[in-house]
Amino acid sequence: MMNEHVSHLMALAISGIIVTVCVVLHYEALRFLSRTVGVHVHKRIGVLVVMLGLLVAHIMEIIVFALGYKTMQLHAGLGHITGLNENNFLNSFIFHRWFLPR
């Protein structure tokens, strides 16, 4: 069993990595979309493409957080979320999407 301070530092490090990955993913999605949707695309279509692209980016970020939950729960031994099936990734995905405050 890990020391409590080591557990907290490990949870902090994993959380920091998850947030950093999501920030970079969001930045790269915005950069890609700004280059893809240029002046040659009708303004309304361009806005629609950007909105759909950001929706995909947000879904990818939710997946990153769900993977982080599973890593912390199953491999790092940093607790669990009561009521979630440990072997079902979809539960972690749904938990992050619907039950965390925004």
What do you see in this structure?
- The chain is built from 3 helices and no strands.
- It has 102 residues and is mainly alpha-helical.
- It has one domain (4-99).
- Helix 1 packs antiparallel against helix 2.
The major pleated sheet works out as:
none
CA-to-CA gap between the ends? Answer: 33 Å
Domain tally: 1
Topology order in helix (H) and strand (E) letters: HHH
How does the overall form come out from the CA principal axes? elongated
Uncertain stretches of 5 or more adjacent residues: none
Describe the secondary structure blueprint for this structure:
Blueprint: H1 4-36, H2 43-75, H3 89-99
Helix pairs in contact: 1-2, 2-3
Salient structural properties:
elongated, 102 residues, single chain, mainly alpha
Summarize, please.
With 102 residues, the protein is mostly helical.
